[in-house]
Amino acid sequence: MSALEAATLPMLLTELRLPTIKRLWPDLAEQSNREGWPAERFLTALCEHEMNERETRRIDRHRMESCLPPDKRLADFDFAAVPTVSKAHVTALTEGDSWVEQGANLLLFGPPGVGKTHLIADIGHGLIERGYRVTFGGPAAVERGPGARPVPI
Predict the structure, then answer these.
(1) What residues have CB less than 8 Å from 31, skipping those under 6 apart?
(2) Helices and strands: H and E segment counts in the chain
(3) DSSP secondary structure string, 128-149?
């Protein structure tokens, strides 16, 4: 690669908004040359890294926009303290999206301190990981949601 190409490529990658490829291409190109990769393998590796990091950034951005408490996860919930809550049901709500697709609402009721916020936050985190946008809070939080239609939880 000429010096001009080496100088131009980072600018092109910046313009195309490919930050991961911009960061990784020199090391992957060196490895590709050293190991004799075909061009398709090199390009595929770069694109896979870009797609994976975009997904990670998307999840991080949607978590931040959701206003969900970051430390409320199902692994930390004490189901023994609240025997009326079914772990299987909560897991099904987190992993299944049919209720969201049907436009159903999810409302939790109970006395203070039984884990309503903890459970709803975990379900919200699970939906974000599945590609949904969520908004944590009451009606005011839904109104301030981003341009895409959030799933109010």
Answers:
(1) 37
(2) 7, 2
(3) HHTT--EE-SSHHHHHT--SS-
The dihedrals phi and psi of 106, each to the nearest 5 degrees, come to: -120, 115
The 3-state DSSP class for residue 152 equals strand
Q: Answer whether residue 142 shows pLDDT above 60.
A: no
Q: Alpha-carbon dihedral of residues 109, 114, 120, 125, nearest 10 degrees?
A: 180
**Alpha-carbon distance 103 to 85, whole Å?**
23
pLDDT in tens, 70-104: 888 888 888 888 888 888 888 888 887 788 888 88
For 77-88, give one letter per residue: b (16+ CB within 10 A) or e: beeeebeebeee
Regarding pTM above 0.85, the answer is no
Do you know the residue count of the chain? 153
Q: Is the pLDDT of residue 146 over 80?
A: no
DSSP percent split of the chain into helix, strand, coil, nearest 5: 60, 5, 35
Measured on CA atoms in the order 15, 21, 23, 25, is the torsion positive or negative? negative
pLDDT, averaged across the chain:
85
